[in-house]
Specification:
Length: about 270
């Protein structure tokens, strides 16, 4: 039986490496990829299976993990790096119909997770995304004006599922731990919600954080935490050091209506309607 032709081939004489370790080989199109003609030379990949016939790696961008799949019109460009020397989740990361520009995507799988993880219909620009656990980004826009300089500027997603979300130019690290975020918007602010309980899930739905000085913080939450249909803007803050957050259908606007529980033994915050 004749072997199926791969959409790309690896130019193994053109190698990208660091400290003697091979990260990838320059790719060459073997068939049309949209406007990319056969014979066109692109970025770097570690496997001929990294790219399907509709997707492409541009310039000096790199996919260095064999378990990454770029499908359905996905483009990575402008020195984007995916999985440099990292085995994604001991499974597969599928990136579908997305555009990644000048970004860095990596993972640290301490749990031996073998699920398929998705980045779908998403635009990521000038961002460092750290995937940890079971993660998926769907219909998301994650971008900033400046390229992050250190790990403190990373967007860290742990067991997180972002849907129809927008995270634009966060001033601080965005760190969601064991969260489900649904139609969450962060524009110029920050969010940091975490929990140490392995069986606790933090849900954020229809939540907006708008304004340079706006943020929602959680810190070491041990109880059920839920924010639903909450909008925080114009310098507001919601901060709970320990305990639980349970807020529904509430608009916080301006410093006078800000909710702040900082460095208290118990920071339970429950507001309904």
């Amino acid at each position: 039986m004749e072997e199926l032709r791969k959409p790309i081939k690896l130019r193994r004489w053109e190698v990208k490496e660091t400290q003697g370790k091979i990260l990838g080989y320059r790719i060459e199109a073997t068939e049309y990829h949209k406007t990319i003609k056969p014979g066109t030379v692109g970025g770097f990949a570690i496997s001929e299976d990294n790219v399907d016939e509709t997707s492409w790696i541009f310039d000096d961008s790199l996919v260095s993990c064999k378990d990454v799949r770029l499908i359905n019109n996905t483009i990575i460009q402008d020195k984007t790096v995916i999985g440099e020397g990292v085995n994604f989740m001991d499974g597969v990361l599928v990136i579908s119909n997305s555009n990644l520009t000048n970004s860095y995507i990596d993972s640290n799988n301490r749990e031996g997770i073998t699920d398929i993880n998705f980045i779908k219909d998403t635009r990521i620009t000038k961002e460092h995304i750290h995937l940890y656990g079971r993660c998926s980004l769907v219909n998301c826009v994650i971008e900033r004006d400046l390229t992050p300089n250190d790990d403190a500027d990373m967007v860290i997603l742990y067991n997180s599922h972002l849907v129809d979300s927008v995270i634009i130019s966060p001033d601080y690290q965005v760190d969601l731990s064991e969260c489900l975020a649904d139609r969450l918007r962060i524009v110029g602010g920050s969010i940091n919600v975490t929990t140490r309980e392995s069986n606790c899930v933090v849900n954020l739905r229809d939540v907006s954080v708008i304004g340079k000085n706006s943020f929602i913080l959680g810190h070491e939450l041990k109880d059920i935490s839920l924010l639903k249909n909450v909008e925080v803007k114009n310098g507001c803050k919601i901060e709970v050091n320990q305990g639980s957050i349970h807020i529904e259908n509430k608009l916080f606007e301006g410093e006078r209506e800000s909710i702040e529980h900082e460095y208290e033994e118990s920071g339970n915050l429950i507001i309904m309607n």
